[in-house]
Design a protein that fits this description.
By secondary structure, this protein is α/β, with parallel strands linked by helices. It has ten helices and eight strands. The strands form two sheets. The protein has a six-stranded parallel sheet, with helices on both faces. Strands 6-7 form a two-stranded parallel sheet. Helix 6 (118-127) links the parallel strand 6 and strand 7. Helix 2 (28-37) crosses helix 10 (196-213). The chain is globular.
């Protein structure tokens, strides 16, 4: 089992958290396999997926050792504890909840609460957030993240919402430690069509963009 610091470093090293949402459990496993083949090994299964807890529990038993599994859309401490007990190594929330942060931290797991304003960011960071999820970043854009990063260089940011192949590099250059990417990566239409090869290719493109934006190519 990884330490919290090892989990955090794995997330930052990869640079992409693949957010898996689906209206049913069936395509989730194939989608995750496709993303892994594309080079993204950080997987977030949200609690909006039917049977999310059982999916996390099953994945925790089956995924390769290099895959880091997390739970998303965690709204309360009980859900956080259940996810951790099922095998989640990090917890993600759309908003800040002190009890969720405490539950994850006290169990040695990384936690990424949501925030938007500077006050919310600082509150989440001081409460023990390992990464602060700037959400929704869609209407704000990379410049907003850059503006936050300026006076708060100690905060590790993971912007989420509306990030796609056209703007991912801009967010990395603006100061993101990693990116939360959902529908533009784990596309519901590709999942519905069973086009796993296209999903793998999309994951590969995201990984290449991150590396290039970081000057690793």
């Amino acid at each position: 089992m990884r330490t919290k610091q090892e989990t955090l470093q794995a997330v930052i090293d990869c640079g992409i958290v693949a957010i898996v949402r689906s209206e049913s459990a069936e395509p989730v496993f194939k989608a995750i396999d496709a993303v892994l083949k594309g080079g993204i090994n950080i997987i977030e299964v949200t609690f909006t997926v039917p049977g999310a807890l059982e999916i996390i529990r099953q994945l925790a038993k089956e995924i390769p050792d290099n895959v880091v599994l997390g739970a998303g859309t965690v709204l309360d401490a009980r859900t956080a504890w259940e996810a951790i007990n099922a095998g989640a190594e990090f917890i993600v929330s759309p908003s800040f909840n002190a009890e969720v942060v405490h539950t994850a931290s006290s169990n040695g797991k990384a936690v990424m609460p949501g925030a938007l304003t500077p006050t919310e960011v600082v509150t989440a960071w001081q409460a023990g957030a390992d990464l602060v999820k700037i959400f929704p970043i869609t209407a704000m854009g990379p410049q907003y993240l850059k503006d936050l990063h300026g006076p708060l260089p100690q905060v590790k940011f993971i912007p989420t919402g509306g990030i796609d192949l056209s703007n991912a590099a801009d967010y990395i250059k603006a100061g993101a430690s990693a990116l939360g990417v959902g529908s533009s990566l784990v596309d519901k239409w590709l999942m519905g069509a069973g086009d796993w090869a296209a999903l793998t290719e999309r994951a590969r493109k995201f990984t290449e963009i991150v590396k290039e934006a970081r000057g690793q190519k």
